[in-house]
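Thread: acetyl coenzyme *A complex, take 2
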Amino acid sequence: MDDLVTITYKGKSYQLPVIIGTENERAVDILRLRNETGFITYDPGFANTGACKSSITYMDGEKGILRYRGIPVEELAEKSSFKETAYLLINGQLPTETELRKFSIMLNDNSLVHEDMKTFFQNFPRASHPMGILSAMVNALRSFYPELQTSEEEINLTVTRLLAKVRTMAAMSYKISRGHTVVYPRPDLAYCENFLNMMFNTPVTPYVLVKEVVRALEVFWILHADHEQNCSTTAVRVVGSGRVNLYAAISAGISALWGPLHGGANQAVIEMLNEIYRGGGDYRKAVTRAKDKNDPFRLMGFGHRVYKTYDPRAKIMKRMCDNLLKTLNLKDPLLDIAKELEEVALKDAYFIDHNLYPNVDFYSGIVLRAIGIPTNMFTVMFAIGRLPGWIAQWKESMDDPAWRISRPRQIYTGPTETHYVPMSERQTA
Ligand code: ACO
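Output below.
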């Protein structure tokens, strides 16, 4: 039969059902595997494991496709706003005019942060990384807003509160880290404009909003809004599966995103490009080092677990990067190095054989630099963008009839049963 997979072991056969997704992705349903065969599966990094069914984001790593709720990310980057994309991901469809207006009002009404939270910010050591601060602050929101999150109305309020306050908290942490006066959100400004104003306005120099900069930020956040079951989203789902509150699950996602192999790559790319620049601009050395198996160095911003072709987000980001620098009349030597590096890597046999192409982080740092975002805030920018995706995935997992607490198995490789040895009888090395 077409919809069954047969596995045979030592002459005995077992049949397992096949699940087919709307884009014809196929999975073997192994729910009964252990009970019927005694086997578990072994899949480090979950590279071949479908941990859930999801109707939020579709990606095809071979063809370079990324769609949110069926809509290609290219179309959203061209026509949508981040707020509208967030609504789409969380609610499953594009909003009507009335729904979008209501969503905007709710975001505005919830954008202030409890004044007591400012004391929290002020007491973090100056050298703290903004991702550590953001993760702690999001978790702390639960203490300030302890309402239940069970009815649809309560969940909607918590979701909107998070979207609104994370943006305010991110800007606030930046201002406090610089010893500047905190700028409050303004109800007359849209989501992205408000963030830029909170980041860059000062009592002496009012921040002037530039249309192209606002649009660049919208697109940056749209491109980061969801990416199906990546490391941080999996963290949100796994932590959420224990039925913790939304704030705790998102805080876990922020911590997971921090790593340089994941969201922290945008900061790592700029640091790498800076190092090449300071070392005289020899980008070929970086390519040689990345190929050397005895050197732990990797070309940051290259490679992806799923994309085996050019990341579609990287294409948009590269174009936007060029346009933004041109519009602002900026010259960034790191962009020149990035382009040369990309050109050399894309022609190199190692990178071709390993299907290593630029990912979204390769050019995003240069866009953020052009906007004026400091390097240590780059991953925070990613986190704000990814928030709607995390929320949508958390909501979906809460409503999933197949939900179970995440609890993988393992292949034990430690000692078999052994016995306690009293200290006096232990051998000294
Ligand atoms: N530079 C050089 N070699 C690389 C790179 C790289 N950036 N990425 C992968 N490889 C090589 C590995 O050395 C390995 O080679 P081998 O098979 O000869 O031993 C092979 O490609 C496969 O690499 P894995 O680490 O097994 O691939 P995985 O799917 O586990 O990792 C990851 C994907 C983490 C993104 C990896 O490509 C990487 O470290 N890239 C650099 C960091 C980065 O840009 N991260 C951002 C990812 S996108 C995002 O999270 C937003």
